[in-house]
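To the structural biology subgroup,

Please find below the input and predicted structure for Solute carrier family 41 member, which we are adding to the shared reference set this quarter. The sequence is reproduced verbatim from the submission form. If anyone notices a discrepancy with their own records, reply to this email rather than editing the shared folder directly, so we keep one authoritative version.
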Amino acid sequence: MATPMAASFGDLLSLALLAGCSQFSFSIVDSYPSVLYLVTLFCLCLVPLWVAVASKHPASQTLLQTGWIPIVIALVISSVGGLILERTVSDPNLAGIIVYAPIINGVGGSLVSVQSSRISTRLHLNYPPGEVPADRTKCYNPCSIFFGPEPNHRSAQILLLLVIPGQLIFLFSSHLVKGAKTMPSFLLTAAFLAASVIQVS
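Predicted structure (tokenized):
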């Protein structure tokens, strides 16, 4: 439970900092537009300093050399998702769909982080650092994660079963918060649940 809680607090703190910086930027953008460029330039000038500091530690030095590819891929995926979401919001027929985006992402991320924590905890308890179990040295069919006698298989089944009731609660709660008079349609509910199950699987 510690991982999703830490992730939630981290997201909350990041959003608070972004909101504060955005409010400050909007308050001075008309009067002092050059200040924003100076702040951006200052942050870019600090990058070599942080790279030099991080490269002094062996673990972070490895990440500096090999960790850029997943970050860049995540950045591209996030940017494309933002463009798609912007087009969706601009369509009056799909304006309400934006409410469901944080729900599907939040629940999926939380459940997967719980499963990842269980797997890493089991590895740390049963094997020394750097050692991989003999039966885990090759790639497996993703469907095999849900079938087997091990505790990780059982927890994966339970977490997958939590998706549908949890998403139904969030779906109807968000619909009521919007002040809608009617419940979501069957087609929207089915598509939302199918996307949630596929995402978590």
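Summary notes: The mean pLDDT is 77. Residues 27 and 101 are 29 Å apart (CA to CA).

Regards,
Lab coordination
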